[in-house]
Amino acid sequence: MTEPSPQDTLDSLRSRCREAHTPCGDGQLVWRFWGEAEPERPAVVLLHGGFGAWNHWVRNISALETDFRVFVPDLPGCGDSDDPPEPYDAASLAAILSDGLDHLFAEDGASFDLVAFSFGGTLSGLIAQAQADRIRSLTIIGTPILGLITTGRANDLVAVPRGMPPAEAAPLYRSNLEKLMVHDPAAVDDLAMHLHIANMGKTRLRSRKIARTFITADSLAGLPCRLNFVFGDGDPTLYPDLAGIRAHATELQHDVPFHVFPDTGHWVQYEAADRFNTLLVELLA
Q1: Contact call for residues 130 and 225 (beta carbons, < 8 A)
Q2: What is the span of the domain harbouring residue 141?
Q3: N or C: which terminal CB in the chain sees fewer CB atoms within 10 Å?
Q4: Does 15 reside within a domain?
């Protein structure tokens, strides 16, 4: 059987989703959702990382949509969503997303689990605080919750000029993915390259300055819901203080589930998709 092309894979997922739009400044935030539209079915909200879009979850949505209603926005200034009003910060971005959840769940009053990757995790504590009456749990994946202070290879990314011919840009994009997102370079396959190049061409949000703050650690304190953490042991954004992150997580909730995937990088849910999907369903149970 012929392996589906990256575009076929994305098109297949998109063909099964529905869309909703909520306010984002003068424009709209784009939400995609999967799973049967039954209010009694549990809802899970997935937040992607910086310079990404809904497709950061391309290997996870299918594992969830059978049993959950799966809601995935493009963050403000990313993917197909419009830009947030300037100047923006973590609080204003989180408010746009929380307002979107108010719109989505206004009729059925559903509760939900929030699963947040990387920069999505930076905003997740603020969203969870604002959604205290609805949120059941918050699972954070690959977010340096003590601030992006890494001195490792995650700081060695190369800027790819807009308009560079694809043949010249592709090796730079691949190198950046290998440095930042994965542990095993072989994980940067055709699908990863395809969606990364598309996402980089659409992203306007500048998230790194916000990610370097302590807003995540501050906003996770006193949350009204259960916390879970999932990291890769080869995640360069956590270097050199994964142990410090674990200690802080335990201070937040003394019995917090803290899972570290071996031989895995930043993009855990892509590089170790099968193991991650199994664990996530257990955490959401």
Answers
A1: no
A2: 6-284
A3: N
A4: yes
Helix H segments across 105-241? 119-130, 166-180, 190-202, 208-211, 215-220
DSSP state of 236: G
CATH of the domain at 30: 3.40.50.1820
Confidence (pLDDT) at 226? 97
Contact residues for 198 (Cβ-Cβ < 8 A; gap 6+): 53, 55
Residue whose tokens read 């909200």: 45
Give the model confidence (pLDDT) of 260-274 as tens digits: 999 999 999 999 999
User: Is 166 in contact with 160 (CB distance < 8 Å)?
Assistant: no
Sign, Cα dihedral of 30, 58, 52, 245: positive
Using DSSP's 3-state secondary structure scheme, residue 258 falls into strand
How many separate domains does the chain show? 1
